[in-house]
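[Automated response] Your request has been received and processed.

Submitted sequence:
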Amino acid sequence: MSLLGRSTDTLWRLLVIAGLVVCAWGSVAVPELLKLRIVLDGKPAPVTSHARYDGKELFLSLDILEILGCKVTLSRREESALVRTPDGAERELALTRLAGAAMVPANDVEALLDVKCAVNKDVCEITTAAFRKATVTPETSVRPQKADAPDTPVASSRMSPRKPTDQNTEPPLRDGSNAKPGSTAAEKPKEEAAKPARAETVQQPDKVDNGGAEGAAQPGADPRDRTVPLLASRAGTAVGPRQTRARVRDVVCEALDPAQARLRILADGAISPRVSMAHDRPALIVDIPGAELESPTASWVFAHPLVSGVEALKDAAPNVLRLLINLSRLVTFRTRPAPPDGYEIAVRLPGLTGRRINELTVVIDPGHGGPSATGCSAVHEGQRVYEKNLTLSMARKVRERLTRLGIHAVLTRTDDSAVSLAARPQQANDLGADLFLSIHVDYAPSNSNASGTTAYYHGSNENGRALAYVLARSVSAAGGLPNRGARSDLERFVTGMAVLRRAEMPAVLLEVAFLSNPNDRAKLISGEFQDKVADAIAEGIKAYVLARIPGLEPVAEQVQ
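Generated structure:
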């Protein structure tokens, strides 16, 4: 009897300890509520708002922006806010929901308003540029201090850089993008992405002039034989008017091996090309502002498994020379200047090429979820349709297709439950997943004609960009939708999208179609259409691993 009593007492102790452990574990995931103190020009501002800090990133409530003199307009879905600064500039900021409140990343506020945020124990201090400038003048400070660093802060909203997501052994090359990684951002862009495309003279690859000269083919051309050493800048040129247009003389291809090549643009005069992936064809677009073609040919043929040739389009845009690099395989690319005036584009197979399909782990994230996720919805034939239900339905179908291929497929949610933005990619990181895919549907209430499929990748991540390219191409073709292409999330938000930025593997946020478009909406709720989308996503992932471009006949030689 005594033994039984002691056993019961021990059991209760174990249960109590287990309960405390569970409570402690749950508390880690909830960002700590911080008291917020705002300093404007050295004077504390009365404020009842708050900040949240999870040990890594700092978030501010929206009324902070209004206190700092901004006008804030929430989007219909409360996923972003249009902010007009005191000087009249406008910027859309991504929002994150914490404890039911819409909050903005502190890094975004810092970049927008030139303020500094720092956490000191249980207080968040914000200082304006005017205040920082005043504190370092001799009149106000006998011993000048750094304005960027408040006294002994425990943490700052600027986090240490993440480790690179690409593990390439090739010497680093600088990508043409000027993107800078930052703090968290919203899960997805919506209405702005649906606005009519800007005039894509240089940066955007949506429009490609099909009327460019194709030039004569060069049978038997050998890229090794045609490699031309870069010419030094011409010396002894007669004094005269300054030349304003660089001249592109030639394009050569160096075959490093069957899995990678280096393209060199040879020019007289400095050039600054912008490189992107074409939406409507298997090609890279190279736009060179302020350049003209000075070559006996407008096309080059190469004997390489990855690149079949290059063609020049003289009239793609005013004062822009466009080169199309025609691809035979799916590639990643990096760019860098090649002194004195040339430019190099290194192409290579994606990082997973050669992996066995049944060795892969793919995490599929059905966007949104939870009782409060009712912002994105539309009425169809008298019934309200919610994005969170559409994404879950498609994600389940994708998991089924990937499982058939032998891929280990995992969903971030399996029912109508709320999952935080941070937890979604973290699941993939914890599993050591090879790929991460977040499925969404787009929405543009002010433009019901907006239609098509868009795939977002983070920053200038090479492998994410290649994955986004094949998925946008595959899904749009299968669904009979316009291909809006692969786009960097930095085109929308200063710091990108949280679910992509936090992922440690190639990651894509896929906007399948527009719920706000009646035709797209009718497709989205169709089980047949969802089946096509699921098939296309599975085929796109398979194509990525095989380095194949959907819709393009595979080359005879499978380079591993």
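Summary generated for your ticket: The longest strand covers residues 246-257. The chain has ten helices and 30 strands.
If you did not submit this request, please reply to this message.
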